[in-house]
Specification:
single chain, alpha/beta, Rossmann fold, 7-stranded parallel beta sheet, globular
């Protein structure tokens, strides 16, 4: 009985210590990135590998030194995402990675986001091995490694930390909705989607970086584990919360971002889809953030809901109608995921959507955020005044993320915006 109580106390201490360290790590991450190896076996570049893909594209906390995926060993992570070469190698297994890297990475990140509740025995063994090698464990699953007795015992013996990103804050630190969101005077834009894992977070991150590069003070509020891993200073993993607190936690995150940063604009990452029958997060995000505008992300080639082959995808038009029925905010732009699409198909889709929906439409990873910036300028004139004209060169200097970017896509704007078009950069 005494041994069990000691183990319980050890787990509590480990959890509290990890939470304190994680907050400190996010706060002081600039210029002090830790190296990280990301595990994503047989899923990199696929839907369940979205966490690994996001970390390859952007991280303010970690320098990604490699991906583990035995099916893609020897390849470059950036190229496997259909983008420019990243210099991040893909290894066949942990031993392969450690034998080729100049030193043991600081962290081992579990980079998959499956529906499965628990990891398999093989993956457990790899996590234990990573601990033995002295690597901190970064976990975004609902299965909390810091509450696993075998993991916590090994962590103590190895002197490493376990960070469960999806663990809810203590009850005393949770927030209910207060209505103080009405005090936020900066525009709040929610980046929602028509499905899970369709690029909402990527679009939000890219737009946030672009706005800041243009001289607009933009802050991103995270609502999922991956964007928290990337280093978002504000937010919470909404699907880890008791439902009563989701709306209040989103509201509190937006308020904190507004009060602490005095931003010109706040972007709120979306989760799942308002129309998705399996998840409630988008409703909580809509209610808690009370956005002034919405950007809607959609994968045109996807026929069925991610992980639900019996559920057909909604149309963009039906999702817009549903969102605008339950929220006073309007959808102001559409962004695309180019999965399973050729450049020609994307271009045709953009032309079609802009004609039918009368909304600016673009694929952010293919050709950047120009149309989104233009839409924000049109809807919020104060932002237009904030943008430094000399920073328009940012669009000229920014290389395309895809190896075969679309040609001429910038010229397709909603007609009323053409007279204010940011110069075409090809």
């Amino acid at each position: 009985m005494l041994i069990q109580q000691r183990m319980v106390n050890l787990i509590k201490k480990q959890t509290l210590f990890a939470q304190r360290e994680w907050k400190s790590e996010k706060k002081h991450s600039a210029g002090q990135k830790k190296t990280a190896l990301v595990y994503c076996d047989n899923q990199f570049g696929l839907v369940d590998g979205k966490t690994a893909a996001a970390l390859v594209r952007h991280s303010e906390i970690y320098t990604i030194v490699g991906i583990i995926d035995s099916s893609l060993a020897g390849k470059d992570a950036g190229e496997e995402l259909g983008e420019e070469k990243s210099g991040i190698p893909i290894f066949s297994n942990l031993d392969d990675a450690l034998s080729r890297l100049p030193k043991v990475p600081d962290c081992y990140v579990y980079g998959k986001a499956p529906l499965d509740t628990y990891i398999c025995h093989k993956e457990r063994a790899l996590i234990l091995e990573a601990m033995e090698k002295g690597m901190d464990i970064i976990n975004g699953l609902h299965q909390f490694f810091s509450e696993d007795q075998e993991f916590t015992a090994m962590a103590t013996l190895s002197g490493i930390q376990i960070k469960d990103i999806r663990k809810s804050p203590p009850l005393k630190d949770l927030h209910l909705f207060t209505g103080r969101i009405s005090e936020v005077t900066a525009p709040v834009i929610a980046v929602l989607g028509t499905d899970c894992a369709c690029g909402k977070m990527t679009t939000a991150v890219e737009l946030n970086k672009t706005l800041n590069n243009l001289g607009v003070m933009s802050v991103l509020v995270a609502t999922g584990q991956t964007s928290l891993m990337q280093g978002a200073m504000y937010g919470v993993s909404t699907d880890a919360l008791v439902s009563q607190f989701v709306v209040g936690e989103v509201e509190n995150s937006v308020i904190q971002a507004f009060e602490n940063e005095s931003p010109d604009i706040i972007l709120v990452e979306g989760q799942s889809a308002v129309s998705h029958p399996a998840f409630m997060s988008s409703l909580g995000i809509l209610k808690g953030s009370m956005p002034d505008g919405i950007i809607l992300q959609h994968p045109p080639a996807r026929k069925f809901r991610c992980d639900f082959p019996g559920l057909s995808m909604p149309t963009v038009a039906s999702e817009i109608k549903l969102i605008e029925t339950i929220s006073p905010a309007k959808v102001m732009a559409v962004t695309l995921s180019h999965e399973d699409m050729t450049e020609e198909e994307i271009l045709e889709t953009i032309v079609d959507y802009e004609r039918q929906l009368q909304l600016p439409t673009s694929d952010v990873l293919s050709h950047g955020c120009q149309k989104l910036v233009q839409a924000l300028r049109d809807h919020f004139p104060k932002l237009d005044q904030k943008i430094k004209r000399e920073n328009f060169n940012f669009f000229l200097d920014r290389p395309p993320r895809r190896r075969n970017p679309l040609e001429g896509i910038n010229a397709i704007f909603h007609a009323k915006n053409r007279n204010r078009l940011i110069p075409n950069t090809g």
